[in-house]
C-alpha cells in the first residue's frame, strides 16, 4: 500500500513530474511545462535547468527540452507508448466526465504497473493525479488485467524465487494469484479494493493491440466510500466503451 508522505517538497514533486513527462510524452517547451505543472515559466525553467544539469533532460536547438541519457525511455519517447498516451488522454477525459471519477492509463513494467496518464474528476472528494506513480502489478486493477493476459511461463518468470529472493515475504502466493487472474480473464475487468492505497477502490480494463493482446490498461479510481456493487455495471460499461474507442483509434494510427 502506497500513501503520500506527511511532508511535501513541491519542487521535488514537480521535477519528478517533469521527468516523467519528458520520458513518456516527448519534448516540452518551458511554457508547456509551466502550464502542465501550474507554475510560473521562471519556475519551470529552473526545474528544467536542474534536470539538464543531472542529465535527466537535454535542451535541443529549438530550445525545447527532451529526455536525457538518464531516462531509459528517452530514445523512444515518440514510441508506441507516447502514441498510446496521446490517443488515450482525450478518451480518459471523456470517461471521467461520464462516471464523475478519476481515470488512469497504465502500462506493465516487469512486476509493477506504471501510471502514464491520469485525469482527475472535479468532485471535492476525489482520487488525485497518479501520473508517474508505480505500484505492484498484482495489487493494481490495471496491473492485474495485464498480468491475466500473460502466458503462464512469463507469469512464472515474473514471480520466480530468483527475482524475489530479497523480498520473498512480499511475493504473492502464486496459486491464489493464478486463480484470481483466471477469474479476471473470464469477466474482463479487475477490482482493486484498497490494496495500493487505503480508502481507494479502482476498476480496470485492458487495452488490446491489433493481435488481441493486452498492451495497456485503463482504470477508474474513486474513494471507497463512493463505490458500491450497484455502480459496478455502469463503470464496467464505461470502461469497455472507452477501451474500444482507444483501440480503434490506435489501429487507425497504425
Describe the structure.
The structure is a single chain. Helix content is 43%, strand content 19%. With 254 residues, the protein is α+β, with helices and mostly antiparallel strands. It folds into 2 domains: 10-75, Arc Repressor Mutant, subunit A; 80-253, Beta-Lactamase, CATH 3.30.450. The strands form 2 sheets. Strands 5-4-3-8-7-6 form a 6-stranded antiparallel sheet, sandwiched between helices. Strands 1-2 form a two-stranded antiparallel ribbon. The N and C termini lie far apart (37 Å).
Describe, in short, the structure shown.
This protein has 254 residues and is α+β, with helices and mostly antiparallel strands.
Helix and strand layout, with pairings?
Layout: H1 10-25, H2 30-37, H3 41-53, E1 57-59, E2 65-67, H4 80-99, E3 102-109, E4 112-119, E5 134-136, H5 141-148, H6 152-158, H7 174-187, E6 190-193, E7 200-208, E8 214-223, H8 232-253
Antiparallel strand pairs: 1-2, 3-4, 3-8, 4-5, 6-7, 7-8
How many β-strands, per DSSP? 8
Low-confidence regions: none
Mean pLDDT: 90
Kindly report how far apart the N and C termini lie. 37 Å
Helix coverage percent of residues? 40-55%
Spatial sequence of strands, sheet with the most strands: 5-4-3-8-7-6
CATH topology of the largest domain: Beta-Lactamase
SSE arrangement, N to C: HHHEEHEEEHHHEEEH
Strand content range: 15-25%
What's the CATH class of the largest domain, please? Alpha Beta
Could you state the CATH homologous superfamily of the largest domain? GAF domain
Structural class of the helices, strands and pairings?
alpha+beta
Backbone CA Rg: 19 Å
**CATH architectural category of the largest domain:** 2-Layer Sandwich
Task: Write down the domain tally.
Answer: 2
- Main sheet properties: 6 strands, antiparallel
Shape: globular
Number of helices: 8
